[in-house]
Design brief:
Strand content: 15-25%
Helix content: 40-55%
Distance between the termini: 59 Å
Number of strands: 14
Structural class: alpha/beta
Oligomer: single chain
Radius of gyration: 36 Å
């Protein structure tokens, strides 16, 4: 997707530079001509007294020089005004987005800082609305830059027409528009926001057919005059982010959002430090077969924060990926899992691998390096992927998966049945095991159709030659039903909670009968 400064802006800037240079050259030549005229007049005055012939011709010479001076002065003034106008135009364009001709981020902040409300408005506060345009990047990628620009201009024109000339409208990000105007109440703004969403959601005609660009709005109320416009805009963007996260379409800024963002930034810094210091821990949840023997473990990462306590993976993993730490986090998990696996020869270690890792062209090289470092074999491990990885699989992802299998790793499809068209993937992608999501395990014994779903998945896995394991097994009844329906591998709190490496060592050393008795109890 095109950045706010479009490629077409570069030739325009070059033309402006050339024009400015030409204007300065013309002005300089005019000034030189004036100086030359003054010098000629001085020369003639000096020599007129000693030359009677020259003295008699002086009135005509003076008239010609005077006329020439008038022409040169007028030209110099014209050049000066043109240069001033050019400078004003350049300053004006510096505050404009080249695609939409709306105010850009700097221009919008400047307008906010200098805003004076119309005399008929009694309100003392402003409402800043940030409108994010969903799927705009996809439109640029699918239909091309020219078509994407036209869609963006159409949506921008809608927002301008909705508020009129009195409300400054800007493009403050690649896919974000903004507007501000005097505000009376949150209820009124909620109504306005809903109207804007409906307006922006109307189809846009393109050569490739009508497209719909859903919008999300964040609103921030600020007192006039606005002392810190950029901070006020940042808070409106935070509200926009909250609206996208909640799926509500519109949200208002609250101080808690600012606190949450600052906390997230602090956690990002602390996570980087924890990675560098090796403070993240790996725990392992056991997996069993039909006899109750431990056949493998799933590697899970934990962050025991020294002051904030245990921070769950659901918090720090997405945060790490958003902060660009996804690959580093994944490498850390593989490195520690390879190292710990030497404690349990013959036990299969399942390691979660993220889409960020699989999209990396250096992922295979990283895995090979870590295998060599720890002296372990690929056939002792399986990499767990989610269905979302296959949904967005490109050539790099598919190539990495194929290379992993050739190296001897197994591939497991995690959370099976919770995504899109799961069955279709099994025949198209290299999968060795499917893991039945806990959502299908929990209803066992409570709903009559739950057992039938497990039976269907088990029959399918047997037909295509892949293993099947059930996650989230918490009761003996669930485990018995799973085995009766053909699912012989299981994982969950009934089998064992995530354990430290030394606890896994003790578990596999214990007699199998002791482990079975403990689970039955």
């Amino acid at each position: 997707m095109k950045r706010p400064a479009s490629p077409g802006a570069l030739p325009a800037a070059a033309r402006a530079t050339a024009r400015s240079l030409a204007e300065h050259t013309t002005s300089a030549l005019t000034a030189v001509a004036l100086v030359t005229l003054v010098s000629i007049v001085g020369f003639l005055l000096t020599h007129a007294a000693s030359s009677p012939a020259l003295a008699s011709a002086m009135p005509a010479i003076y008239a010609g020089l005077f006329a020439s001076s008038l022409v040169l002065v007028r030209q110099w003034k014209k050049d000066w005004n043109a240069r001033r106008a050019g400078q004003a135009g350049a300053a004006h364009m510096a505050f404009r987005d080249p695609v939409t001709q709306l105010l850009n981020a700097d221009g919008f902040a400047d307008a906010l800082a200098h805003y004076a409300p119309p005399s008929d408005h009694a309100e003392e506060s402003l409402a800043i609305l940030c409108v994010s345009l969903g799927r705009l990047k996809d439109i640029y990628d699918r239909l091309g830059e020219s078509c994407g620009d036209e869609v963006l201009r159409d949506l921008s024109a809608r927002l301008v027409s909705a508020f009129g000339d009195d409300a400054p409208v800007g493009r403050i990000g690649e896919d974000m528009l903004a507007v501000f105007h005097p505000a009376s109440s949150g209820i009124k703004l909620a109504l306005v926001g809903g109207q804007i969403n409906r307006l922006m959601d109307l189809p846009v005609a393109t050569p490739g057919g009508d497209v719909i660009v859903p919008s999300t709005i964040g609103v921030n109320f600020v007192e006039m005059p606005v002392a810190t416009p950029r901070d006020a805009i940042r808070q409106a963007r935070l509200a926009n982010s909250a609206a996208r996260t909640s799926g509500s379409g519109l949200a208002f800024f609250e101080a808690s959002l600012d606190h949450a963002q600052r906390l997230q930034l602090d956690l990002e810094i602390e996570l980087r430090q924890a990675l560098q210091a090796g403070e993240l821990q790996m725990v392992y949840q056991p997996q069993i077969n039909e006899t109750g023997a431990t056949i493998g473990v799933e590697a899970l990462m934990r962050w025991p924060h020294p002051t904030r306590g245990q921070i769950p993976p659901a918090v720090f993993v997405p945060m790490a990926e958003a902060a660009g730490l996804g690959e580093a986090l994944g490498r850390y998990a593989i490195d520690r899992s390879f190292a710990d696996s030497t404690l349990w020869p013959g036990l299969k270690i399942a390691i979660n691998v993220s889409p960020v890792q699989l999209r990396s062209p250096t992922f295979i090289a990283t895995v090979k390096t870590l295998l060599a470092r720890h002296g372990v074999k690929a056939n002792g491990f399986e990499f767990e992927i989610t269905e979302g990885v296959l949904l967005d699989a490109d050539a790099t992802v598919l190539g990495n998966l194929e290379q992993l299998r050739r190296m001897g790793f197994q591939i497991a499809l995690d959370d099976f049945g919770t995504g899109y068209s799961s069955l279709s993937y099994l025949g198209r992608f290299p999968v060795d095991k499917i893991k039945i999501d806990r959502a299908f395990v929990t209803p066992l014994g409570l709903r009559s159709d739950a057992s039938s779903i497990i039976r269907a998945i088990s029959d399918l896995s047997e037909a295509i030659g892949v293993k099947v394991l059930a996650e989230g097994v918490e009761t003996r009844s669930q485990l018995d039903i799973l085995r009766a329906e053909g699912c012989n591998q299981a994982q969950g709190y009934l089998i064992g909670r995530p354990m430290q490496p030394d606890q896994i060592t003790d578990l596999i050393k214990a007699p199998a009968s002791d482990a079975r008795n403990e689970r039955a109890a």
